[in-house]
Amino acid sequence: MLMMDLPRGRIGEKVKNISVIVFSKGRPMQLHAYLESLLKYSEIKQSDIQVLYCPTEGIRYEKVMNTFAEVKWYTEQKFEEDLKRAVKAAGEYIMFGCDDVVFTHSFSLNKAADYLEKNDDVFGFSMRLGNNIEPHPVNVKCHDGVMEWNWQEAGMLHFDYPWELDCTLYRKSDVEKLIAEEEKTIKNPNYFEAMINDDNRDSRITRKHMACNQATGCAVVITVNRVQDSYQNGFDDSMLTDIVSLDKQYNDEDNTLDIEKISAKGNNKVHVESEYFILRKESKGYDLASLRKKKLKNIRRKLVRFPKKTYNYIERRIYRNGLMENRLKILSTKDTLDAIKNGEKSFIRFGNSDIELMQGKPTPAQQCDDSLVMKMKEVLSARYEDLMIGIPYYYVYPQKNLTPYINVHALSIADQRRFLFKNCNRNMTYMDSCITQAYQIYEEYDFREHFDALKEMFKGRDITVICGEGVLDRIENKMFEVCNSIEYIFAPSMEAYSEFDNTLEKACKTDKNRTVCLILGSTAKPLAFELYKKGYKVWDIGHMFKDYDYWCKKKARTEAEIMQFYMPD
Question: Who wins on pLDDT, 303 or 329?
Answer without folding.
Answer: 329
